[in-house]
Amino acid sequence: MYYEVKIKYPEVNEVGEVKDVNRSFLIDAMSFTEAETRMVELARERDFKDLTIKAITYSRINKVINEVEGDDDKFFNVTVTYVEETDEGKKKNYHLYYLVRASVPEETIPFIEQDWAGSTIEWKITQIKESPIVEVVNHE
């Protein structure tokens, strides 16, 4: 289960001014309390001074694809819609939500295609948009 944790902390910019920085992290945790604890531990490791946790919310993300090596520092939210037939014979749309690391939106598509390779279910990518997430913190 993923939680989005939004934080604020002061940081010295390149001009030497202290400015508040807002960041969003995706934390793999079993509860809000665990997500908060893991964020505070990460902040200590990174030496974030005067950290303020602004919000912790349950994330709809079902799967994270964070396999890109290099300088790709963006994440994109990708929505996949697939169709299944109900017991009554009607078609129903379902959604899966991915967080994919890439440089540009178009680079997310091969990762999704690979994830759905071999599937017999009718599916399509219905949305790709840049995410405010700067880092994913998984269980070790």
Strand order of the largest sheet: 3-1-2-8
**Count of individual beta strands:** 8
Question: Which percent range describes the beta-strand content?
Answer: over 45%
**Structural class determined from secondary elements:** alpha/beta
In round numbers, the mean pLDDT is 92
Low-confidence stretches: none
Query: Strand-and-helix sequence, N→C?
Result: EEHEEEEHEE
- Rg estimate, integer Å: 18 Å
Q: What does the largest sheet look like? A: 4 strands, mixed
Q: Separation of termini?
A: 14 Å
What share of the residues lie within helices?
10-25%
In DSSP terms, counting alpha (H) and pi (I) runs of 4 or more, how many helices?
2
- What characteristic shape results from the CA principal axes? elongated
